Amino acid sequence: MYEKKIHIKRDNITLNGMLFIPTSEKPYLAVIIAHGLPSIPLPVEEKGYDILGRKIAALGVVSIIFNFSGCKGSGGFFSIQNWVKDLEIVSEYIGNLKEVALSQIAYLAFSMGTIPTIYLVAHQDQASKLYPKFLIICACPANLSDARLKDLRLGIHLTSQTGGIQIKKDYDKEILSEFKEYMPIRWIAHISSPKFILHGGNDDLINVKNAHDLYEKAKDPKELIILKNAGHKLRQDQSALHKIFEIIKKNIKFQ
Question: Is the pLDDT higher at 102 or at 142?
């Protein structure tokens, strides 16, 4: 396996992360990993996402991890709009790699990272070479109530105060309206790719009802996978990882 640190320019900021490329066979699929809202002020390379990236690459596909705008390890400021732009530029970077075949990109998104992922794909041209082969959607906050959005607003401020993210001073005025606009429940029906919706039955942060609502709104092909003993952080749950790897392996193709 070959791995390297990456530095991707978007406007006037740099997004940093890691790229993992298998050497045994020429990959035909690339998995873009989108992290959630940081709970601790560390880049993804220091929080175990590098281990996940290596395990996925060991399956015979390219994988990439990166830090969204406003998070440790990258520049800029946090907002969902910025995260959509980040994901778009990272997708273009992956799509231009010689090791990645056209039309063989997939997304593995966790928690907050599912919001820009679903929004971006919903607004992509389905004929585009970057339109994903499939999406794995983990612990998605699909349809938050006004009360939960206010809790999220508070959580964003607390995360900012502890150094997990950077936000602009005037972003507070936009938080609620932005999240309402980008809510996955509004956009999931626009995605034609296969969707694998994973959620922990014991998720104490995002109620499992979100997964059922998202699944109901999504169009076929789709699959709902409730891991009854799992919590919110599915990338740290062995049953969830087993399912994620199983999905990827079933969808690998080589030239």
Answer: 142
